[in-house]
Design a protein that fits this description.
heterodimer, A: alpha+beta, Aldehyde Oxidoreductase, domain 4, 29% helix, globular, B: Ubiquitin-like (UB roll), DNA polymerase, domain 1, 2 domains, 5-stranded mixed sheet, 5 strands, 32% helix, 13% strand
Chain lengths: 794, 173
């Protein structure tokens, strides 16, 4: 079949084609940063603060310098003149005018040193770097460094941190509130004054570690030959790494190449640019040899960003039918000792709080609070699981107070399908007005009711309201909304190589999301090729001039669209060049299977290699008049704003009343991520997200003691879900095409992780009926559940 | 200390320190970087290798403990008998989207090989229990279960005992 016959080519997008990425990964030939061998590489180990808050009174490195194999030992004082601290962290920290007007954010400076030299503010903060012949020798020498500290008062609890008299994490931030904002939609005060019922609830989501299976790692090398510093790093944002190195070392971005090799997961914490990345670039330049640092897991648990640590106080105004007329939310986000993402995660909580519900009047204040803990950053969902936990628990608690079925109350509050597109009266983080673009929430909820067997369960419960069984079953629902595909842009280069192959280069690099496969599907449809014939690469700042990164469910939307646009432009150019060669109008030409042929006559053709050669510069060039030589197109896609994915999730659980143990038996999810490029990849993203959501609901918790000492620094203490905890998972895909990008897609990377904690908590509450348990604090570990049962029985 | 062992079917001699772990020896001295280090305290299973056919955590063994033994890493699995020269377990993980970032994959593939060598038709519960020592943060394990079922089918077909047992995974594509 030719493109002529197909008319519109839509052969590969939408199909579950096998992944192109897998062969090296299943045979052990992946190249993660720890696997790259460069001759003469020295290894780096860090001395990190053992104190949560202290003044550094002395650092003696003499014994370490004399250690076996030691190349150098570096302190904060050594680099003070040459390596600037972090004063900017992420490129999105610019506050757009629309956000400024509506939310009045106040963001105070909170500079973070690359190596602490005067004061340490959390356990794990880097103080001294040792460079040695190998890692074991570097660690030996770290043990020889003598740092003396003078302990300072510690603040661990964010609620105490904002009270007057609290120890200050940064002296010039006098209430420990580093960033705050307040935003409102509608007339909240009037709605509360008119409401028949007003209730107040407190919700707490625990601190979590995203825990990619590969820790962070950096390999840096500088060559005098080209005066270029190359940094391989396990990062979701290579371009931000490049910018930070440039700004903090005072060298041009053009002299820095950042490459992301194979990457063993990210999930959010690898969005941040870290001190180690800047320092290793500096060390490579000053030492003149490659240097590498590979984080070990115990380091990772204290040196890599945590997330999710929020406390919400929620006031809800509602009527007798359970219709919620207004909500006031006042919440704290525990930012840790520095706040690299300022209001990013917290504002996400605010803007997604109302989820799929109308709630016409809404007011929210978010405060990012400094404490003596590891800094906070994004983790899959980035503020949304926290907000969803509060919102959907509140729906359930209201239903309980009114004696109504909670799923009925959910349904009563939904935004109706005919109200789309639905404005929310507040801006998104990009400053654009939030307008849900599409979706039929009532129909989706009805489908989930049927899929999960909820109505049968509710009838059985009504028939037998009390039970003496030790193990009880419950079903809980939750919803989610997710702005996906945030800008400001992503870039792609689509070009022919000298063999006439189509080469795609993306500014967004994968860490498991299948970019090679899915973006090749997009390009394959443009050029009439098989995805296996597309040569794909990503995550190398030398290949696409500018880029943003892989996070916020944005790659398919923003980077995929850039590939489509650049591909279309190249396809047009290829036909224009072939038109010169074949002396026929470009409109009458078709690009297919590596050739450009005359429509309806596959034998009158030139190959893509012919086109490549014809477009080379020189007097023999056969290029359309007025254009430059070459067959390389660079295109940036700038989305107008985010596009909203949404869904509902039902958890079926059993609860053991004697042990407090919760088993998730089944998860049913109905979700809308727009048009699917590769359905099996979408399934995998949802399943992975759901298991992480189960971890957050039941198992995972970063714990500190009152002195700011972390107690969960191994996988023996920080519990990740294993294969033994996997429930049955059933999915229904809705595909409401987005009109905010040329592919019609919505992001899905985070979707699975958002609703499980709320749904599981609601399911546990359902199972324990008629007991009225408060399950407003995560995780729902056995002691927490037992405590809730005991309290309810009093 | 100089030790000799058999690695992926080949006799090797290597000088190691007393404190060198088997994982570091395989990665740094023998270039077998398919051995991944995810936690270095024996929980995540990414560094799993087979020692005389049994799965072990190479981060918890000293290299000297492997002296005189037979070590198989993921690089040694492809035996030319399966599709494209791959071991059926590798083929199955690819076919079922049983991996995303791929970091845990070598360990899971080797654990699956051990399981299927012991029991060519494990039940779903046996699979869940056996794989629970290998953490995967990407997939949610669902497609890994499908991959194990598929691998069992492929291996039974290869060994001629093609009778399909109850509960074999269906092609979900």
């Amino acid at each position: 079949m030719t493109a002529t016959d197909r008319g519109h080519r839509d052969e590969w997008v939408g199909r579950s084609v096998p992944r192109k990425e897998d062969l090296p990964l299943v045979t052990g030939h992946g190249r993660y940063v720890a696997d790259i061998q460069l001759p003469g590489t020295a290894e780096v180990a860090f001395l990190r603060s053992p104190m949560a808050h202290a003044r550094i009174t002395g650092i003696d490195v003499s014994a370490a310098l004399a250690g076996e194999g030691v190349v150098t030992v570096v302190t904060g004082a050594d680099i003070r003149a040459t390596v600037l601290p972090f004063t900017r962290f992420v490129d999105q920290e610019f506050t757009p005018p629309g956000l400024e007007r509506a939310a009045h954010p106040v963001i105070l400076p909170c500079p973070m040193p690359v190596l602490a030299s005067e004061r340490v503010r959390y356990v794990g903060e880097p103080v001294v770097a040792v460079v040695a012949a190998d890692r074991a020798l570097a660690e030996d020498a770290v043990a020889l460094v003598d740092v003396t500290y003078e302990a300072l008062p510690v603040v661990v609890d964010p609620v105490l941190a904002v009270q007057s008299g609290s120890p200050l994490v940064h002296d010039d931030i006098t209430d420990n509130v580093q960033a705050t904002f307040e935003v409102r939609a509608g007339d909240v005060d009037a709605a509360f004054a008119a409401a028949p019922h007003v209730e107040r609830f407190n919700y707490e989501t625990q601190r979590q570690a995203a825990s990619p299976m590969e820790t962070r790692g950096v390999l840096a090398v500088h060559t005098d030959v080209t005066d270029e510093t190359t940094v391989w790093t396990s990062s979701q944002t290579p371009y931000m790494v490049r910018t930070r190195i440039s700004e903090q070392l005072g060298i041009a971005e053009e002299s820095i190449r950042v490459v992301v090799p194979d990457m063993g997961g990210g999930f959010g914490p690898k969005v941040q640019v870290y001190p180690e990345e800047v320092l290793l670039a500096h060390l490579a330049r000053t030492l003149g040899r490659p240097v590498r640092w590979i984080e070990d897991r115990s380091e990772h648990m204290i040196a890599t960003a945590h997330s999710r640590d929020q406390r919400h106080t929620v006031e809800v105004a509602f009527d007798d039918s359970g219709l919620i007329t207004a909500i006031r939310d006042d919440f704290l986000m525990d930012a840790g000792a520095y706040n690299p993402f300022s209001i990013t995660c917290a504002y996400n909580s605010a803007v997604h709080f109302r989820s799929v519900y109308q709630v016409p009047h809404f007011q929210v204040r978010g405060r990012c609070v400094l404490t003596n803990k590891t800094p906070n950053g994004p983790y899959r969902g980035c503020g949304r699981p926290e907000a969803t936990f509060a919102m959907d628990r509140a729906v359930y608690q209201i239903a309980r107070l009114l004696g109504l079925d909670p799923v009925e109350v959910m349904a009563r509050n939904l935004i109706p399908a005919d109200a789309m597109p639905y404005p929310r009266g507040m801006p998104y983080r990009d400053g654009q007005e939030v307008v849900y673009d599409c979706g039929d929430f009532p129909a989706a909820l009805a489908q989930l009711r049927a899929l999960s067997g909820y109505d049968e369960h509710a009838r059985a419960r009504q028939a037998q309201p009390t039970s003496t069984a030790v193990t009880r079953r419950g079903i809980g629902f939750a919803s989610y909304i997710e702005g996906t595909g945030i800008g400001p842009y992503e870039g792609a280069v689509v070009m022919l190589d000298s063999l006439g192959r189509v080469v795609v280069r993306s500014g967004s690099a994968p860490h498991g999301q299948s970019h090679d496969t899915t973006m090749s599907q997009v390009a394959a449809d443009v050029f009439g090729l098989n995805p296996d014939q597309i040569i794909f690469s990503a995550g190398d700042t030398s290949l696409v001039p500018n880029g943003i990164g892989t996070f916020a469910s944005r790659s398919a939307v923003v980077a995929g669209s850039a590939v489509l646009l650049a591909g279309r432009r190249l396809e047009q150019r290829v036909r224009a060049i072939a038109s010169e060669l074949l002396e026929i109008s470009a409109e009458d030409l078709v690009v297919d299977a590596g050739y450009v042929h005359v429509r309806g006559d596959a034998t009158s053709r030139v190959s893509l290699a012919d086109v490549y050669r014809a477009a080379l510069p020189g007097p023999q060039a056969r290029i359309p008049g007025g254009t430059e030589p070459g067959t390389r197109e660079l295109q940036y896609f700038v989305p107008p704003t985010v596009t909203f994915g949404a869904g509902f999730l039902a958890a079926t659980v059993s609860v053991d009343l004697e042990t407090g143990g919760v088993v998730v038996e089944r998860i049913d999810i109905i979700h809308d991520c727009g048009r699917m490029i590769n359905p099996v990849v979408v399934e995998g993203q949802l399943q992975g997200g759901i298991l992480q959501g189960i971890g957050g609901a039941l198992y995972e918790s970063v714990v500190y003691d009152e002195n700011g000492q972390p107690l969960t620094t191994t996988f023996m203490d920080y519990l990740l879900p294993t294969s033994a905890e996997v429930p049955e998972i059933r999915q229904i895909h809705l595909a409401t095409t987005s009109d905010r990008n040329p592919l019609g897609v919505k992001g899905v990377g985070e979707a699975g992780a958002i609703a499980p904690p709320a749904a599981i908590a609601n399911a546990v509450a359902d199972a324990l009926r008629p007991l009225e348990v408060e399950l407003n604090r995560l995780p729902l570990s056995p002691p927490t559940v037992i405590e809730a049962i005991t309290r309810a029985q009093r | 200390m100089r030790i000799s062992m058999e690695v992926n079917g080949r006799g090797v001699e290597v000088d190691v320190e007393d404190r060198t772990s088997l994982a570091d020896c395989l990665r740094d001295r023998l270039g077998l970087t398919g051995v991944h280090l995810g936690c270095e305290h024996g929980v995540c299973g990414a560094c799993t290798v087979l020692l005389d056919g049994s799965s072990v955590r190479s981060c918890l063994l000293f290299a000297v403990q492997a002296a005189g033994h037979r070590v198989t890493t993921v690089e040694g699995l492809a035996d030319g008998a399966g599709q494209g020269g791959l071991h059926p377990v590798q083929t199955a993980f690819m076919a079922c989207h049983g991996l995303q970032c791929g970091f845990c994959t070598p360990g899971l593939v080797l654990t699956t090989c051990e399981l299927l060598a012991e029991d060519p038709a494990p039940t779903a519960e046996e699979v869940r229990a056996r794989l629970s020592g290998n953490l995967c943060r990407c997939t949610g394990y669902v497609k890994i279960f499908e991959a194990v079922d598929r691998a069992a089918e492929l291996m039974r077909a290869r060994s001629g005992t093609a009778a399909a047992p109850a509960g074999a995974a269906e092609d979900t594509r």
